[in-house]
Amino acid sequence: MDIQRMHVGKTLSEAAICNGVVYLAGQIAEDATQNIEGQTREVLGHIDRLLAEAGSDKSRILMCQIYLAHMGDFAGMNAVWNEWVADGHAPPRATVEARLAKPEWLVEMVVTAAQK
User: Average of pLDDT values for 5-34?
Assistant: First the structure.
């Protein structure tokens, strides 16, 4: 069983693929000056890009874990999520409040998806 890693760095890979399943690293916004809606849009864009590179897309998401720095941002994040998620393909999801690695990060998402 081969494991393919994408965008491999010293600390982590942005994605790993094994047995037709794509595992993404936690995705955060590079522009942390944005509000929750802006950071969420950017994170979802990273997810779209990585899934496409791995031969998948948002309709194939098996699970999403969402970490919010402040649960008060839940409605703003969820509004952007609901615009983005594929109709009829809302995946299982967990959303929790957590202290993220950098205080300016408002949201981090971890996705597992099936390849096409």
Answer: 97
